[in-house]
């Protein structure tokens, strides 16, 4: 397995590996940079040690002194170095080829930005399959835009505002090594053998899965949510945040978190803070700062006197929080989320309603899907994309306090139950497809 160098991609690959090894006698190697592997090694329990191994991929850094090994990941990477990271990843193809020769695998599962990876597989006589860690709605929207930008997307609930469309086009047009990201995406899909794995479920994205299959001319195989189960349950229950939540009424707490790789501006933080304060709700808010802002104090970015005014009703957690444990807790009534795909699926998995506040990349499309499916409500913005405290407060009220929230919660719980029932069936389908691909190779 070769995921892209982002935490939001590596973790789904790890979860898929764990699911596969519990179903069949697969032996799986997960290949990534040392800095990325160091973050996921603690997430792998001893019971998988005989069937899942980590393999270090070293990117060239002598030729790229501006990208030392601790930057061989998107986590904490300064934005201006993103194209350099892609270039370094491309330049590691020889190292990866040598790894493949040493391991001699039966199959390569790869991600969406490295078309050079599937090109190596036929040279060593084994097949390769793409595994996309984003949703089918966003992926089909992107592929259709790349193939025919003038053609209107056939599902009207999925769209981009003008300010979002500009950012979206900039992402597809961005390039490294002379290759646009949009071209990388298409080449990776084209080079996958007759199937493509997607991290999703038919329970929420059936029509988008089918449309994506039509666009790509390949079978799309949903692998399920791949949500990581909370670890160290006994330890978590003893932590102060769990004790604080245990004191709260059912469905009364708002959990606010924007993922590990997006950092809010001071203006965004202020609008969210005022929105929380206007509604007088209890909340847990995870605030992260970039490496360049690591010395920033939370008090410096929050409205003056905010912490004193909210008192014990609000908890600010810097850097990290046990998200899965928090979302599972009965006191949580809403999740203010950037709608990263992993966070969306995690919230649905635990039956929680989403207060959607998308920021960039696939998040606006995911937010529209959340509303369409009925598991959340999006915070509307100005024409320029700015947040407004009154709108933040209104949506929090609608989801946590008003009757609309009751309907969203019921729908979220129903979908959760249906997805949980289908989980084993989906992984069984993945195993069957992978075995057919590997068997087909042996019979040639």
From TrEMBL:
Broad enzyme group: transferase
Name of the featured protein: Glycosyltransferase
Family the UniProt entry places it in: Belongs to the UDP-glycosyltransferase family.
Record's keyword terms, sorted: Glycosyltransferase, Transferase
GO biological process: carbohydrate derivative biosynthetic process
PROSITE patterns the record matches: UDPGT
Short name of any one Pfam family annotated for the protein: UDPGT
Known EC number: 2.4.1.-
Superkingdom per UniProt: Eukaryota
Molecular function per GO: UDP-glycosyltransferase activity
Domain Glycosyltransferase N-terminal: 1-225
PANTHER family named among the record's database cross-references: GLYCOSYLTRANSFERASE
């Amino acid at each position: 397995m070769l995921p892209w160098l982002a935490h939001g991609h590596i973790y789904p690959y790890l979860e898929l590996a764990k699911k596969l090894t519990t179903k069949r006698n697969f032996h799986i190697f997960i290949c990534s940079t040392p800095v990325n592997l160091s973050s996921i090694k603690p997430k792998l329990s001893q019971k998988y040690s005989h069937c899942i191994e980590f393999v270090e991929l070293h990117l060239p850094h002598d030729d790229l002194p501006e990208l030392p090994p601790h930057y061989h990941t998107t986590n904490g990477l300064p934005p201006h170095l993103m194209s350099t990271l892609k270039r370094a990843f491309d330049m590691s193809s020889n190292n990866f080829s040598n790894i493949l020769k040493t391991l001699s695998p039966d199959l390569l599962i790869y991600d969406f930005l490295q078309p050079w990876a599937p090109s190596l597989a036929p040279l060593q006589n084994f097949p390769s399959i793409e595994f996309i860690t984003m949703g089918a709605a966003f992926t089909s929207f992107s592929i259709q835009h790349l193939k025919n930008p003038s053609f209107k997307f056939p599902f009207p609930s999925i769209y981009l505002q003008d300010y979002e469309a500009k950012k979206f086009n900039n992402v597809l047009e961005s390039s490294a090594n002379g290759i646009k990201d949009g071209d990388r995406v298409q080449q990776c899909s084209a080079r996958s053998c007759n199937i493509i794995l997607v991290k999703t479920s038919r329970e929420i994205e059936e029509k988008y899965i089918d449309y994506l299959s039509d666009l790509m001319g390949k079978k799309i195989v949903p692998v399920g949510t791949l949500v990581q189960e909370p670890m160290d349950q006994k330890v978590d229950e003893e932590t102060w945040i769990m004790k604080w939540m245990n004191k709260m009424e059912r469905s009364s707490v708002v959990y606010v978190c924007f993922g590990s790789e997006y950092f809010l501006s001071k203006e965004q933080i202020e609008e969210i803070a005022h929105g929380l304060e206007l509604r007088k709700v209890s909340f847990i808010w995870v605030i992260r700062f970039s490496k360049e802002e690591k010395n920033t104090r939370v008090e410096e970015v929050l409205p003056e006197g905010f912490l004193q005014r909210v008192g014990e009703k609000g908890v600010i957690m810097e850097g990290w929080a046990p998200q899965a444990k928090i979302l599972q807790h009965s006191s949580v009534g809403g999740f203010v989320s950037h709608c990263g795909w992993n966070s969306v699926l995690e919230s649905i998995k635990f039956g929680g309603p989403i207060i959607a506040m998308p920021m960039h990349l696939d998040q606006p499309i995911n937010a529209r899907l959340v509303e369409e499916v009925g598991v959340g409500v999006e915070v509307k913005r100005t024409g320029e994309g700015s947040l407004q405290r009154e709108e933040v407060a209104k949506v929090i009220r609608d989801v946590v306090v008003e009757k609309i929230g009751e309907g969203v919660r019921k729908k979220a719980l129903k979908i959760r139950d249906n997805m949980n029932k289908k989980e084993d069936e989906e992984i069984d389908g993945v195993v069957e497809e992978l075995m057919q691909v590997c068997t087909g190779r042996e019979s040639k």
